[in-house]
Amino acid sequence: MASTPAVRRARRSLIFLLVIVVGLVGLITIGVSRGEATWTPKLALDLQGGTQILLAAEQTDGKAVSGEQLQQAVSIIRQRVDAAGVSESEITTQGSRNISVAIPGKADKETLQRIEASAKLDFRPVLAVDVGTTGADPDNAEADTAKADTADGSSADTKTTDSKEADTKSTDAQKTDTKTTDSKDAAKTENVDPNPLPKEAGDQAWLTPGLQQEFADFTCKSDSALDTRDAPADRPLITCDDTGVMKYILGPVELNGDVITNAVSQKATDSRGNTTGGWNVQITMNDKGAKQFGKISTRLYGAQPPFNQFAFVLDGSVLSAPTMQGQILDGRPSISGDFTQESSKALADQLKFGALPMDFTVQSQEDISSTLGANQLQAGLLAGLIGLLLVVIYSFFQYRALGTLTIASLAVAAILTYLLLTFFSWRQGYRLSLAGIAGIIVAVGFTADSFIVYFERVRDALRDGFPIEGAVENGWKRAFRTVLASDGVNLLAAVILYIVAVGNVKGFAFTLGLTTLVDVAVVALFTHPMMALLARTRFYRNGHKFSGLDPRSLGAVYRGRAQFREPVVTSKGAGKKNARSQHEAERRQTIAERKAAEASGTVASSATGKES
Amino acid sequence: MARRSFSEFGNALYTGEKSINFIGRRKTWYLISLILILVCLFGALLRGSPNLGIEFTGGSQFQVHLTEGQDRDSGAAEKVVTDVVPSSNPRVTELGASDIRVQTGSLKDDENQEVIAALAKAYNVDESEVTFSYIGPAWGQDITRQAIVALIVFIVFAAVVMALYFRTWKMSLAAMIALFHDLVITAGIYLITGFEITPAAMIGFLTILGYSLYDTVVVFDKIRENTSAGEVSDHRTFAESVNLGVNQTLVRSINTSIVALLPVASILFIGAFVLGAGTLRDISLALFIGIFAGAYSTIFVAAPIYSQLREGEPAIKEHDAKVLKLRAREAEKSDDEETVEAEATK
Question: Ranges for the Protein export membrane protein SecD/SecF C-terminal domain (chain B) (predicted)?
Answer without folding.
Answer: 118-310
